[in-house]
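Writing this down once: the sequence line spells out the residues, with the fold written below as integer tokens. I am pasting one below:
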Amino acid sequence: MIEPRAPRLLHGDEGGPLSRRLVSVRMARLVDFIGRSGALAFHRTSGMSDFEWKLLARVCETPPLSINELGVLLNRNVGQVSRTVKRLVGAGLLRRENKGGGPGVLITPTPLGRTVYAPLVQVAVERDVVLTQGFSAEEIAALVGYVERLTANALALLAQEQALQAGQNEDEDAHSPG
């Protein structure tokens, strides 16, 4: 086993006053560190870019998905999603199929895509073991419960912001000339 050493941190990784005070900022920092190390691990395992493996993983986890759905789920613009899907289709990892009854396409994994995805799952499982190292089963169960509650609260915030955005868009539409 490789002896762990201190990571190379970027200026600002140590966090500021808000990261010591707000749970949301602490969580964002944690997710950032997990994401950055994951990007390195998954690239090392698959040779794919950060966005390519995330897109492949999302399609393998919840097929079929449209380009628009992938854009929303991955927080990327449709153009970037479409270009990446095209590359992964060309590599034989994904399949594009016309949606029945309307415009658009659905993206699904190919058998090769699932084969490439399998080692990514194994890396994710191994990383989860390392991340939760030192926690008892009871502590992990409690943590899962806390994360579920935080997720429910975050979804409530998202719904609130989406409603405010929809109201703002309606106000803009009502006041625009035309």
User: Anything to note?
Assistant: The longest strand covers residues 94-98. The chain is about 70% helix and 5% strand.
